[in-house]
Design brief:
The protein is an all-alpha fold. It is built from 21 helices and 4 strands. Strands 1-4 form a two-stranded antiparallel ribbon. It is globular and about 65 Å long. The N and C termini lie far apart (61 Å).
């Protein structure tokens, strides 16, 4: 029975890999039909009006050409702190380039991949102590297993952290915990994505004071940082209310068999060590928040922190060194698929960068914006940001590429700076809810053990509904001179 379950899981795990492989092939095809071009850049920011075409080889001979060594040479030159060697000619992606882009994508996304693996390891140690299982069962018993009690509270708290403080990667560790709570309540693993995933994405889509989105975007739109927050706060309340109601309805009814099984174990008590483990999670979470918000921690620092936290939980839980190490490795194993998918998503960025087509796509997208009604222009800006979200999932990366170009166009069209920023955050947040090139979304799905297609089936109606609300919000914003 266990062997058949493992085989079934292995077959199921092929689906997201095949899906990402198709995305990679589609990206490679894009490099053949899109001319090469580039903007000049001042640091990471593009300089408007500096787009120029570049020669690119895209005939049939490229398909079987060896992969260019430019990226490896550049990496070596950086390591030696020597001038970069001359790059080879720009060309479309050949078969060798496609294959080489996968390990390059893994290297490019190494920080996020290791953070995901260490989150899995930490949760493996936490699960081995038994504390989280007992706590989840008692929580479900205390609330009567009611989704009407748990779902709104979870989503409000998590969405607030996302929209006010910019939390997103910090919530990755909560995904398996939410999945365990959902399991105890009798729900499928999609429960974790319905609560944590939707809440986090709603927070980013409204970005009331999200520093990762606003600190760069608002100065480029010539408005003060964190200004205009009351309109975004109103949207946050509306979007979150809609999302909570949607999640409650779509989760359906729990499995009576699972819920009854959880109720039969509700009398189990936490041991002293298990209580110590749970209490340690409170200051541990506070340190993680402080590290991200105040000390500038990113993937490397957060990864190291999860290793340290794993050691602390193992000591408090009374685990022997060998048991703790086994639990950590087992937890990491559960996240290997997530790491691979994140690497393939990074390979998409590698192909786009090597073939120099990304700037061309941005240039062509912005050529036709302007000269129309202001409400139309505002919604066109959001549509561009949504399209760019597939190619550039990173919020900071997208704002550096798009806002220097879109902000002047919006200004000339009579669209205010606050509305331009609103179009950016809405387009950015909504697309990152569904794009298969978002490494963080793939990590969330892997942690929840939910397939991408299952997630799309669940969230698609909400995505389209929020998109329509966003169109209405931008129209109102233009009308009131926001």
């Amino acid at each position: 029975m266990a062997a058949r379950a493992a085989t079934s899981a292995a077959r199921h795990s092929l689906n997201p890999v095949i899906m990402m492989g198709l995305v990679l092939l589609a990206t490679a095809f894009l490099t053949y039909i899109t001319p090469a071009g580039s903007f000049q850049r001042h640091g990471d920011l593009v300089v408007p009006g500096t787009y120029h075409s570049l020669p690119k080889q895209s005939d049939a001979s490229v398909l079987f050409a060896p992969a260019p060594a430019a990226s490896k040479a550049d990496a070596a030159s950086k390591a030696e702190k020597s001038p970069k060697p001359a790059k080879s000619a720009i060309r479309a992606a050949g078969l060798a380039s496609i294959l080489v882009s996968i390990p390059e994508g893994l290297v490019k996304s190494a920080g996020l991949i290791f953070m995901v693996l260490f989150v899995g390891g930490m949760f493996g140690v936490l699960r081995r102590t038994g504390a989280i299982d007992v706590a989840a069962t008692r929580l479900v018993h205390a609330t009567g297993g009611s989704k009407y009690a748990l779902v709104p509270v979870l989503m409000i708290v998590l969405a607030a952290g996302s929209t006010f403080l910019g939390f997103i990667s910090e919530y990755l560790v909560l995904i398996p915990i939410a999945a365990l709570i959902g399991e105890r309540m009798g729900f499928k693993p999609i429960f974790a994505m319905a609560t944590v995933g939707v809440a986090a994405k709603i927070g980013y889509a409204t970005s009331v004071t999200n520093p990762l989105a606003l600190i760069i975007a608002q100065p480029l739109a010539h408005v003060p940082i964190f200004s205009g927050l009351f309109f975004r706060l109103a949207l946050f309340v509306i979007f979150l209310a809609v999302s909570i109601a949607y999640s409650i309805v779509m989760l359906g009814h729990p499995s009576a068999e699972t819920a009854n099984a959880a109720a039969s174990h509700s009398g189990e008590r936490l041991s002293g060590r298990q209580l110590a483990v749970l209490l340690a999670l409170v200051p541990a979470g506070a340190v993680l928040i402080a590290g991200s918000a105040l000390w500038g921690w990113r993937e490397d620092e957060i990864s190291a922190y999860y290793v340290a936290l794993s050691l602390l939980l193992a000591v408090l839980g009374g685990l022997r060194a060998g048991d703790a190490a086994d639990a950590f490795v087992d937890g990491m194993k559960s996240m290997i698929l997530a790491g691979l998918l994140i690497g393939i998503a990074g390979a998409v960025q590698v192909l786009l960068a090597d073939s120099k087509v990304l700037d061309t796509l941005i240039y062509n997208a912005t050529r036709f914006v302007g000269g129309q009604a202001r409400a139309v222009v505002a919604n066109e800006l959001m549509a561009i940001e949504m399209a760019l979200g597939v190619l550039i999932p990173s919020t900071s990366g997208k704002v550096a590429v798009s806002m220097p170009i879109l902000a002047p166009i919006a200004q000339l069209s009579g669209v205010g700076g606050q509305t331009t920023v609103l179009a950016f955050v809405l387009g950015n947040g909504l697309t990152n809810m569904v794009t298969p090139t978002s490494g963080m979304l793939l990590a969330y799905l892997a942690a929840a053990r939910v397939s991408f297609l299952e997630w799309i089936g669940f969230v698609a109606p909400l995505f389209f509904g929020l998109t329509l609300l966003s169109v209405a919000a931008l129209t109102v914003a233009v009308a009131i001179g926001y």
